Amino acid sequence: MNTQEALFNYILRLGDNGLILSQRLSEWTSKGPFLEEDLALTNIALDIMGQANSLLDYAAKIEAKGRTADALAFFRNEREFFNTLLVEQPNGDYAQTMVRQCMIDNFEILFYGALSKSKDETLAAIAAKSVKEITYHVRHSSSWIDRFGNGTEESHARAQRALNEFWRFSDEFFEMNEVDMVLLKEGIAVDLAVLKPVWKKNTETIFAKANLKLPETTFMQTGSRKGVHTEHLGYILAEMQHLPRMHPTAKW
Amino acid sequence: MSKDSQGPLWEVFVQKKAGQPFVHCGSLHAYDKEMALQNARDLYTRRSEGMALWVVPAAAIVASSPEDIGPFFDPSNEKVYRHPTFYLIPEGVKYI
What we know:
The complex is a heterodimer.
Chain A (H helix, E strand, L loop, with lengths): L2 H24 L8 H29 L5 H6 L19 H22 L5 H29 L3 H14 L11 H8 L6 H18 L22 H15 L6
Chain B lengths: L8 E7 L6 E8 L3 H12 L7 E6 L11 H5 L23
Antiparallel strand pairs in B: 1-2, 1-3
């Protein structure tokens, strides 16, 4: 594949992660555990949506087929999405949402830190801006993990259950295929193999501080690099896309 | 009525720019210092209100009561000699 095709796919991965995760976090709107936290999480969802917006705008430009970010967001089907499987997992209770978020935030801080040195100037700029926001997200989710793990028996049990459930989606963050190889040669992509041990160590430290044990399972879920998703993505897209699809020419 | 389980009340102060006074902008509930600071950032700095935050447990604040207005504050109204109105401040100096 050529650089343009690889770059389009690469940016879609990043934009789709933001889009789907933001959609999931928005499900907490007005349902947060208390007022301040409701605002905190929806602010985080907005930050992530902002990143997704910039990325999908850029993806549309790279594709050069006249599609807009909106067209990419609302008129693609499941198999054309390249977000990781973890972002589409259900919110569950607040411990579950925070465990998922902690795993993702700790990956993104490393990933966007590295991407801000990309030879692609647009990606580097988006990454540099995102790092500031993600630094705050890491702080937020890590302190919740601490509270849940070191809180009550119930909070600990819920957090541990979520960690056991989601651990099998962690390897997927670091999968590389032909897209990465093409872009690594150009100095555009991030070498995920380098990030993996750092992420492992950082998450181990955070969860250990919360007295949460990393599961011993070695089975890892996979598929999103090929557009193969879990059963959840269909429902997320149905809710997210049905309005623009019902009224495709509406403007607001 | 159920017991309030939102945690203690904190008052939030925002400083717009370095060197300027911290201004009271609202309150929030939180269980500890770190959460209070993060919640203050999420609630009260959404629109670039400032560059620094203070959060203070409301219980730590000692306030004057309305009955005090007479003895505390009225006497200074008639003491014009205490106000620095006889100095000319150069133009462009906003914060002295």
